[in-house]
Design goal:
Shape: globular
Strand order of the largest sheet: 1-2-4-3
Largest sheet: 4 strands, mixed
Strand content: 25-35%
Order of helices and strands: EHEHEEEHEHEEEEHEEEHHEHEE
Number of helices: 8
Helix content: 25-40%
Number of strands: 16
Structural class: alpha/beta
């Protein structure tokens, strides 16, 4: 059994989500202790429990410690099976973070998987739904991993109630990701507004346009008034011929619409002007996929990123406990070049 200290590095829920997904992917039993020990409310929360129960269902796993507040989990996986599943986080917990676990665990599925999930689609400290569908899923397709995502209803804090459907298609041989310096000339985006005046979306959009005058920009404003709670979220992305980078920003009380738009475009322009192949958040999320390809097929992945987040460094530490890989980083101007290779 592989033992993982959940308080290592950034010490959040990502260690738990990735460790259990890697357990299924490799067939290795895992024990995670000190779960989210560095957080104000340590232990399992609703969204973590939903992810774990989903992973248990789709792999016929044996698991212990699955309850709210638990500081440890033992997980013994079976084999991924197909089928349709309904999940309800029960709060505004992040749907997209739940899928970070599910998709990685399903990487070698031989049968189609369909999930209908209820919870928060656009909430703090997690990728927005539009980042998930416009940035993350397209990047997964670069590996040959095909996933479809459909939004049924937005869900903001505090009531949640968002609903989505995600279909995971069976995969064959996967490909490595080898993309270096890129040129970005256009920016796309979506601002979703629920139960707030129209000017909130318009002011957010105008703030973005004022800072993106040197780019071809197309931004949609979506009214999401069927959501249970009020909210606003801005997501931007830019495509090159080989990849896509993105940024997202969630509105909150006391944050002017102009500031929301300005912060979101500032973040994207940092990525675009650096000519990187992955934004800071995508790099973190895709490391396990690159590692799997390297370990199974001996094919290295190479990418450029502005910086490695604490999440990414923690992920590297964790992945090396499951797979025979190593991560090589070197400075390349104002960015980092990262290689993911099979270790000898």
């Amino acid at each position: 059994m592989i033992e993982i200290d959940g308080s290592y590095g950034e010490g959040g829920g990502q260690i738990l989500r990735t460790a259990v997904a890697m357990s299924i992917l490799t067939g290795e039993d895992v024990k995670i202790r000190n779960i989210r020990a560095n957080r104000p409310n340590p232990g399992l929360r609703a969204q973590h429990l939903t992810a774990l129960k989903a992973l248990q269902m789709i792999s016929d796993a044996k698991a212990e410690g699955l309850h709210i507040g638990s500081s440890w989990v033992n997980f013994s996986p079976g084999k991924i099976k197909g089928g349709s599943y309904k999940l309800d986080i029960g709060t505004a917990g992040s749907i997209t973070l739940v899928f970070q676990s599910i998709l990685l665990a399903s990487l070698q599925t031989e049968k189609e998987l369909t999930f209908k999930v209820r919870g928060g689609t656009d909430v703090k400290w997690s990728p927005s739904w539009d980042y998930f569908t416009e940035v993350f899923i397209p990047l997964l397709s670069k590996f040959g991993f095909e996933v479809e995502g459909k939004l049924l209803r937005r869900g903001f804090y505090p009531k949640g109630g968002g609903e989505v459907e995600v279909i995971v298609h069976p995969t064959g041989r996967l490909k490595s990701f080898q993309v270096l310096e890129q040129e970005y000339r256009s920016i796309e985006g979506r601002i979703a507004v629920s139960k707030l005046p129209n000017h909130v979306g318009e002011r957010t959009k105008q703030a973005i346009l004022r800072k993106a005058i040197s780019y071809d920009v197309r931004i949609d404003i979506e009214r999401a008034d069927d959501a249970l709670s009020e909210g606003v979220v801005a997501t931007l992305w830019s495509k090159s011929g080989e990849t896509v980078v993105g940024s997202t920003m969630l509105g909150e009380k006391g944050l002017p619409s102009e500031k929301l738009g300005s912060m979101c475009i500032d973040e994207l322009i940092k990525e675009v002007e650096s000519k990187v192949s992955l934004d800071v958040h995508a790099a973190d999320q895709l490391l396990p996929y690159m590692a799997f390809v390297a370990s199974h097929y001996g094919e290295k992945s190479t990418f450029l990123v502005r910086e490695l987040s604490n999440h990414a460094r923690t992920n590297m530490w964790l992945i090396e406990k499951f797979l025979p890989v190593k991560f090589i980083t070197e400075g390349k101007g104002n960015v980092l070049r990262v290689e993911v290779v099979k270790s000898s």
